[in-house]
Specification:
A: mainly alpha, about 85% helix, B: about 90 residues, alpha+beta, four-stranded mixed sheet, about 50% helix, globular
């Protein structure tokens, strides 16, 4: 079992074998083993709950960003209508950054979703194993001599122990990934705190530090394209309203 | 031979298939050692497929220890290089 992070199992096996060495009452060892398994199952449930919490947090962040994208898009359109291409460009640059973050967040949510499903399935399997252990323990108690029972207990405990080790490893991997996502989510929050996705109306001419940074991010090409598209849609800068074209079509 | 795919389950693999698995395992070690990620991925996929296709999944109430434990399917190449060394996952 080299390389498998089965700390849970190792601790568990060590305790079982120590009890078996004393071996005053195999029945007691079995009951202890079973209770320990139930206890560890609770840890697993807690681990799954943590994944769910992380997922919900990312989903909330994703919703917030979606709102920002819509808002910045609207602002860009308004700016064009008022002939303020500089503001429109700043809004679109922010929108590009927000969209990139959004894509990454959505991918993370999907990944956590898959992890949650897998862990839940594995938890169900472990529960079955523990149930099988419970049944076996009663059989061993009733049918075997103390010496035979020792061997049987060792086997059954190893079987459950391996399942636990495996689930422990899966939990560890899920936790590691969640940790990486948390770090990433923290970075998005910092960007938000720095005003990257902020409402443009709170900024003067749109020529602050953030704008200069954004311009350097190389979002230029995409922003140019989108700006041109919006201008084509909305008509010249001195048009009276944002939806001139739509209204025009309606009247035609 | 009882084989576990980590994170997925335990399978009972007939002896002839166990030998084939051992062969793939040894070749996987060679790819890991010469830093050949594409070659490793190919063999790793074959190993997983062999176990799933030829092995019989053990019932969930079976309490036995595995003879071999394969790492999780999504193992990174860096992790694999730590596991696939020497005689591989299956001792020769």
């Amino acid at each position: 079992m080299a390389g498998l992070g089965g700390r849970m199992s190792t601790v568990f096996k060590a305790k079982i074998s120590r009890l078996l060495d004393k071996s005053e009452d195999p029945g007691e060892t079995l009951d202890y083993g079973y209770n320990k398994q139930l206890e560890l199952l609770q840890n697993v449930k807690k681990g799954i709950a943590d994944v769910v919490t992380s997922k919900k947090r990312l989903q909330m962040q994703s919703q917030k960003l979606e709102q920002q994208v819509v808002k910045l898009d609207t602002q860009a359109r308004q700016a064009i209508s008022q002939g303020r291409e500089d503001l429109a460009r700043a809004a679109l640059e922010r929108k590009t950054v927000a969209q990139t973050e959004l894509q990454s967040l959505d991918a993370q949510v999907t990944e956590l979703e898959a992890q949650q499903e897998k862990l839940t399935e594995n938890e169900r399997k472990l529960r079955h194993k523990i149930e099988a252990f419970r049944t076996k323990k009663e059989v061993i108690k009733a049918q075997y001599s103390a010496a035979e029972a020792q061997v049987k207990i060792g086997e059954a405990a190893s079987g459950v122990g391996e399942e636990m080790a495996d689930l422990g490893l899966a939990m560890q991997r899920a936790e590691d990934k969640t940790e990486q996502m948390r770090a990433r989510a923290g970075a998005v929050e910092e960007l938000e705190a720095a005003g990257t996705f902020e409402d443009l109306s709170t900024l003067g001419s749109g020529q602050d530090d953030i704008d200069r940074e954004l311009a350097q991010l190389g979002a230029g090409g995409q922003v140019d394209d989108e700006l041109a598209k919006m201008k084509a849609e909305l008509g010249p800068g001195d048009a009276p309203a944002a939806d001139t074209k739509a209204l025009g079509e309606g009247n035609a | 031979m009882i084989v576990r795919i980590s994170g997925e389950g335990q399978y009972e693999l007939p002896d002839t298939d166990a030998e084939r698995l051992n062969g793939l395992d040894n070749r996987a070690v060679a790819t890991a050692e010469r830093n050949d990620e594409a070659g490793f991925r190919e063999l790793w996929t074959q190993m997983l497929e062999l176990v799933r296709a030829e092995g019989n999944e053990l019932p969930e109430d079976e309490l036995v220890e595995s003879d071999v434990i394969l790492p999780p399917r999504d193992i990174s190449f860096a992790e694999a290089q730590g596991e696939f060394t020497g005689e591989g996952l299956i001792p020769d």
